[in-house]
Amino acid sequence: MNDWPRRARGFSLLELVVALAILGLLVGMAAPLTETVIRRGKEQELKNALYRIRDAIDAYKEAADAGFIEKSALGSGYPPSLEVLVEGVRDQRNPSGSKLYFLRRIPRDPFAEPGMKAPESWGLRSYDSSAENPQEGEDVYDVHSLSGGRGLNGIPYREW
């Protein structure tokens, strides 16, 4: 009843080659896009980590200026290290010895070397150093990434 000749089922070699070429083209286009998405995610992590640390440093400074934290007469009022923000400092308002805490943990720089601990992954700037040439000192006025890379916006991570 059916006059059509029976066709062999399956794919011809030409169809298979064309399908593989299209698949290879799509994978080739998706790989750089995936890399950009991952990098953008790390950049967002860096922004969030810098914000949290800088916010904690500012809160420490405000508490020191308000007299809630003991500071020396010649001190800047900034924390002596990043660890102090996590370990806490004695609250001068409360004689029972309670502490003020500013961070739960020190976030890690997402662009740092894989083996580095979180506090070591940041470059520190003291109150006495310039913004153009940040140097460590007796306090922590600011933090920056130690990565030599540049962001997708063209600005080096060290300057974020």
UniProtKB/TrEMBL annotation:
InterPro entries reported for this sequence: Bac_GSPG_pilin, N_methyl_site, Pilin-like
GO BP terms, alphabetized: protein secretion by the type II secretion system
Keyword set, alphabetical order: Methylation
Transmembrane segments: none
One GO CC annotation: type II protein secretion system complex
Pfam families recorded: N_methyl (PF07963)
NCBIfam families the UniProt entry points to: IV_pilin_GFxxxE
Record-given protein name: General secretion pathway protein G
Organism: Azotobacter vinelandii (strain DJ / ATCC BAA-1303)
Lineage, broadest ranks: Bacteria, Pseudomonadati, Pseudomonadota, Gammaproteobacteria, Pseudomonadales
